[in-house]
Design goal:
The complex is a heterodimer. In chain A, 41% of the residues lie in helices and 17% in strands. Chain A has twelve helices and ten strands. In chain A, strands 1, 2, 3, 4, 5, 6, 7, 8, 9 and 10 form a ten-stranded mixed β-sheet that branches. In chain A, helix 4 packs across helix 11, helix 5 packs across helix 11 and helix 11 crosses helix 12. The longest helix of chain A has 23 residues. Chain B contains 22 helices and no strands. The longest helix of chain B is centred in the middle third of the chain and has 40 residues. Chain B is globular, with a radius of gyration of 23 Å. The chains are: A alpha/beta, B mainly alpha.
Amino acid sequence: MKRHRLFLHLIALTSLALRASAAAGEVVVYSSVDDVFARPIAERFQKQTGIEVKLVPDTEETKSTGLLNRLIAEKKRPVADVFWSGDPARAAILKAKGISAPYQSANAADLPKLFSDPEGHWTGFSSRARVIIYNRNLVAAGQEPKSVFDLADPKWKGKGCLANPLFGTTSMHAAALFQMLGEAKAREFFNSIKANGAAILSSNGEVKRRVGAGDFAFGLTDTDDANSAIKEGKPVGMIFPDQDGMGALIVPNCAVLIANAPHAVEGKKFIDYLLTPEVEQALAESEAAQMPVRKGVKVPASVRPLDEIKPMQVDYAKLAALLDELARGFLKDWASSD
Amino acid sequence: MVSCAVLERPGTWRVIGITVGLLVAFAPAVPLLFAAGVQNGGGSMLGGNFGAALGRSFAVAAAVALLTVGIGLPTGVLAGLSDFPLRSFLLALLALPLLVPSFLWAIGISMLRTSSGMSATSFLSGYSGAVIAFVAVGLPLVFFVSLLSTRGISRGQADAARLAGGESNLFRHALRSVSPTAAVAGVLGGVLTLADPGPGQILGYNGAGFAILTSFAAQYDFGLAARQCLILSVLVVVIVLPVVVLLAPRFAASLLARDVAPFAPFRSSLTNWLAPVLLFSIIIFTVVLPAAGLTAPVLRDFPAARVAQEVRRTLPNTLVYAAAASGIATILGFALALIAGRERRLRAILLAAAVVLFALPSSFGALGILHAGTAAPATLDFLFRSKFAASAGLAMHCLPLAVIIAMRSIGTTSPSWANAAAVHGVPLRLYFGRILVPHLLPAMLLAALLCALIATADVSTILLLHPPGETSLPLAIFTVMANAPESLVGALCLAYLGGAAVLMCLAAALARFARDTS
């Protein structure tokens, strides 16, 4: 009899526990932000709200056919509720393919409109920037490259490198240069990069490693890569390029609500959380050393505030279409030719 | 009651069985092959530089096939014929490159190059660097296939060869006997490189794999990628089919009854030290040098707590995916090989299909399953959006290996076994349970083990198909490797390699226990 009662108690407790977890709900987040930075944020949200976060990480750096393809393939019956993109170009592609849904979070009110979709399909927050990483043993103090155009300068012949411009933030940077310079000048610039012997490497991480190892004097990468190399004690320095000219490309994170998301309510709550000052501060304090786009967020001394950097004045909403066109045409030929 | 003799007779059931089995194997790729016909992204039919990329890829594949067979075949045969100290340990070490995704090995070579101060144009980069990275992964495959096939030589055959011309004659005889299987493994190793963009990307060489990746990942043009895959597959068939047709009769192994008792190992002291020396040299080249590049950062800092957390989070799923994928691939592979039986035509078709399946990028089938899952009703999520779907996707990628091991293993059975069982009225079920399965069991275990290892290293499929929150350890490494500190990436790699090595040692111990107690 006692055993029977114990068994019933166990069933009751289990069903209560199950009901409790069901009440809190879950949210499926696909993220192209590096797992080491995204997971702690997801865990904080889970702790605060009780909503279980199922994080599906990816990284554009390692060139997977990845999450964006998964989102495209799952369009008719999505699994994901939120896409946490590491850059606006991927978010804009989702909008163009009808995979995202508009959502204007109340927490986005004090975020700059420049970094978000005017129709609310993606909202930008904490950002990285495209920077020059250089090897301090190979570049004398005061002689550092100061512009992306140094990749084509004969002074640096065979000494520069960049990641494959078909992928990741480098692709967005290429599209931004086409938007800023115009097609003819941009083509000329890319062709002269190649003529100047700059190496095309597999990823921004590879640029960081090879410059750190002294294979190349300098290269183009992202602030998080450069910061991690500095923290690892590599003999490298970081420069925000073209501060006297067109400025540095700012690459904000973007929160995207997926159309027909199975857990849309929880998805919106997660986006609300991503857009809080708390998350911007946490990402600034992480090894990614991301720059808050919102004014007034406290940042460590190693993180340069965004208002101290001259940004490239690009129209983020138009970059995706340009990128798509370039990936099918000029950049594809450029990257695959010897 | 079905007679056992049916196993040795031709019949339409064989054609139907092979057709159904291959349809199952290729089913995940069908949605994208269909897309190849109907979708046009607006660009050219195959992309501008695809022809040149194909040429480069086939050159790399040919170099890899030649090098892996040239080195792996004689070394595998010698190791199979010899008994030497630390044999199990050296073999386990040599298997390590099979356990890791190829891009990880390429990063190891790249790090080795930079840490040794070699220039960016040294032989460890570009075309030669890619060949070296692929050889490091393909060589163990040919080596182990050669070793296994050599172990399949019976005591009677070995004694006869020794009587006719001593140990050197036995070596020549074994080399001739094993070469068809090793050649097929080498071709598979070469074919496997065609659609793998990882090492080429990292080491600065762009082939067909990169072009397909670009279509998928940069242009999001499934139709273009599918057409490129289709062309690649057709070319693979055109090139490989004559080889397969030529080798199939010899690949079918002996049709005569066999004494399956193991032969005595080489008695010459020269060969008994030569084998470990050769093996050790290969291990230095394929394992020690790339692994040194990967693990050097760990010596500076070992983030034990973070590694333990990641391993705890991912290990159960890693084991589930590996076990389920290897189970599916092994059962399907042996079933297909059994259905093909000794029919030359069917064996050639099966082998060609296996090669084509190997040539398709793993993400191709995975995307097909994703499309099917999206089109299917939610009630079928347990089939298309589950750990089973991920495991099935992995299984289709390693199926060719299971098929090859199964064909070779079934070739070592004698037709007289089934015929004798039929004459004595032994039920088919009893024949399977008492004769056939126990005889095939070691090969089945080997196939399962190799498939589990290859499935574990396949990151693309898991990335696309794993249910949210159910990640694996290699995928965890893949997603942190770009930005995490080098010490964390290195430590995770070590944990992965260590875990796989422990599993392999366990499997070897189990196999030895089974052999000793049988």
